């Protein structure tokens, strides 16, 4: 059974070990592409949250930086059926 025919585990999807798994053949680039293509687009649910980052500032006033936050409470995976 190829990895495309079975569900990838959280470890196999972990970006911290992805290069090692790709190099060993445990997963393929096509597996990663198929998984990411199947993810729901939740960009419209993102909320921009501005916050100060004084460590990045060289002057007296810190630049404002915005981060996008997406609530995963309503995101449902097609495989697990759990909300």
Textual characterization of the structure:
The chain is an alpha+beta fold. The protein is elongated and about 50 Å long. The longest helix is centred in the middle third of the chain and has 9 residues, at 29-37. The chain has 3 helices and 2 strands; from the N terminus they run H-H-H-E-E. It has 2 domains: 1-39, no CATH class; 42-75, no CATH class. It has a two-stranded antiparallel sheet. This is Amidase.
Uncertain runs with pLDDT below 50, 5 residues or more? none
Q: What is the helical fraction, as a range of percent?
A: 10-25%
The radius of gyration over CA amounts to: 18 Å
Coarse morphology: elongated
Main sheet characteristics: 2 strands, antiparallel
* Helix-and-strand structural type: alpha+beta
Q: Largest beta sheet: what is the strand line-up?
A: 1-2
Q: What's the overall average pLDDT, rounded?
A: 77
Secondary-structure element sequence? HHHEE
The number of distinct helices, counting runs of at least 4 residues, comes to: 3
Number of domains: 2
Please indicate the percent range of residues in DSSP E strands (runs of 2 or more).
Answer: 5-15%
Number of strands: 2
Distance between the termini: 29 Å
């Amino acid at each position: 059974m190829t990895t495309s025919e079975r569900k990838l585990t959280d470890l196999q999807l972990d970006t911290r070990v992805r290069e090692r798994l790709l190099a060993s053949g445990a997963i393929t680039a096509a597996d990663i592409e198929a998984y990411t293509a199947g993810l729901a687009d939740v960009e419209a649910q993102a909320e921009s949250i501005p916050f100060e980052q004084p460590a990045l500032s060289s002057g007296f006033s810190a630049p404002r930086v915005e981060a996008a936050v997406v609530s995963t409470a309503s995101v449902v995976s097609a495989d697990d059926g759990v909300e």
